[in-house]
């Protein structure tokens, strides 16, 4: 079921009016008995610059998607599939083939404090595969072609005051690299993992996050690849009872990056927050897909992705799925995507999807907007003596700063701010 906002709830974001609502479930009784059993074909667009009207049919419910660890269950995509129609398959062909690693990415782990261990897991060795289940061909190929997964484990009741840094470096442009990483946080532990991707490769890299009961886990995934890198990956997390999970994805580098970030819950009381920041230049394709599976009662989620685009054929895609299953009574969920287009020739596609199978929830909603600068903002700043170039910089910084601040690691926030400054210089700001 798609949740739509009413006109009187419109807000002004980046110069475009968009609807936004916490919860409206027409036709559903308190018990959810009037929930439609089939999804109708609907037109869905948020009217943003560079967007096209999308017709989607419900055979596309996330509850019906194939998940498997067997490559045979996923055919090579043609581009006609819903989950692949935005992706540049010609460029992704090398990472979709069922091929072994040619040159592996190099992993360096820093800040392995007391209570943190590093090891390896075979494909059938627990806890590998207990949370991760591939949702497309890229993910299953990456999993099956990785013989040994890296495993970072934080012991129960361990609270780390400094992040664990994982430097992931591609060492050969155009060379295939498969990888799988398992991050495990024990009960009542607290940890921040920072994954930083640099260099170049045709990288098919998956991440599996296990947040045990009562844990507090933050995962920061930085994509700072060279301009010729290809990166696909699925990053899955399961949130335990009364656990907190925060995932932040920052994508600035790479020729093509396509990441799926997914969350589900092991028990009640879990909290999940998913943030994303991306800045696409000419010729880049940056694609982010998020899925929150509310599969148990009384859990919450908040999803916020923001992006900026500049240059000819700069392309971004965000697809956000939230599924509130019938068993997930008491759920509170919200997702939002905003895009700021800085120059002609750029395109942003933004598709939020919300499915609700019970009326007994605390709240649910989504919003999306895409547009250029709000000239009123520029006029306000320039009227106070700020030159136009600096005023435009301030608008972009202010737009993206909400995501930067969510990182919570000062050194990383500072470096991301510097990266954004460099991006603005490319556009002549």
TrEMBL record:
Ranges in coiled-coil conformation: none
SUPFAM superfamilies for this protein: Stabilizer of iron transporter SufD
Region (Disordered): 1-65
Family: Belongs to the iron-sulfur cluster assembly SufBD family.
One of the Pfam families matching this protein, by short name: SUFBD_core
Annotated protein name in UniProt: Fe-S cluster assembly protein SufD
PANTHER family from the UniProt entry: PROTEIN ABCI7, CHLOROPLASTIC
Positions of the SUF system FeS cluster assembly SufBD core domain: 172-399
NCBIfam families associated with the record: sufD (TIGR01981)
Highest taxon of the lineage: Bacteria
GO biological-process terms attached to the record: iron-sulfur cluster assembly
Signal peptide: none
């Amino acid at each position: 079921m798609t949740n739509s906002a009413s006109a009187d709830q419109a807000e002004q974001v980046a110069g475009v009016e968009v609807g936004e609502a916490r919860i409206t479930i027409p036709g559903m009784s308190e018990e959810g008995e009037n929930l439609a059993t089939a999804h109708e074909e609907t037109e869905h667009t948020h009217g943003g610059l560079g967007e096209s009207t999308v017709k989607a049919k419900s055979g596309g419910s996330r509850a019906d998607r194939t998940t498997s660890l067997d490559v045979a269950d996923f055919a090579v995509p043609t581009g006609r599939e819903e989950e692949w129609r935005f992706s540049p398959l010609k460029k992704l062909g090398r990472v979709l083939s069922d091929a072994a690693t040619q040159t592996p990415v190099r992993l360096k782990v820093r800040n392995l404090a007391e209570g943190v261990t590093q090891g390896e897991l075979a494909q059938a060795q627990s806890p590998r595969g207990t949370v991760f289940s591939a949702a497309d061909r890229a993910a299953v190929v990456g999993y099956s072609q990785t013989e040994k997964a890296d495993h970072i484990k934080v012991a129960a009741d361990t609270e780390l005051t400094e992040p664990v840094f994982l430097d992931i470096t591609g060492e050969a442009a155009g060379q295939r690299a498969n990888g799988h990483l398992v991050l495990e946080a024990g009960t009542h532990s607290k940890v921040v993992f920072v994954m930083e991707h640099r260099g170049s490769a045709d990288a098919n890299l998956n991440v599996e996050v296990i947040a045990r009961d009562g844990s507090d886990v933050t995962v920061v995934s930085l994509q700072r690849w060279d301009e010729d890198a290809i990166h696909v990956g699925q990053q899955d997390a399961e949130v335990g009872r009364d656990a907190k999970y925060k995932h932040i994805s920052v994508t600035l580098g790479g020729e093509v990056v396509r990441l799926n970030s997914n969350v589900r819950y092991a028990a009640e009381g879990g909290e999940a927050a998913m943030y994303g920041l991306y800045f696409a230049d000419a010729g880049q394709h940056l694609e982010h897909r998020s899925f929150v599976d509310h599969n148990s009662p009384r859990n919450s989620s908040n999803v916020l992705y923001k992006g900026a685009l500049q240059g000819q054929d700069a392309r971004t895609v965000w697809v956000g799925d939230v599924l509130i299953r019938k068993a997930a009574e008491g759920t509170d969920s919200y997702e939002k995507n905003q895009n700021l287009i800085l120059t002609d020739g750029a395109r942003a596609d933004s598709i939020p999807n919300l499915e609700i199978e019970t009326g007994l929830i605390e709240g649910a909603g989504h919003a999306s907007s895409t547009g250029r600068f709000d000239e009123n903002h520029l006029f306000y700043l320039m009227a106070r003596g700020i030159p136009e170039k600096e005023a435009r910089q301030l608008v972009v910084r202010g737009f993206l700063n909400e995501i930067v601040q969510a990182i919570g690691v000062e050194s990383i926030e500072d470096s991301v701010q510097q990266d954004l400054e460099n991006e603005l210089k490319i556009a002549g700001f």
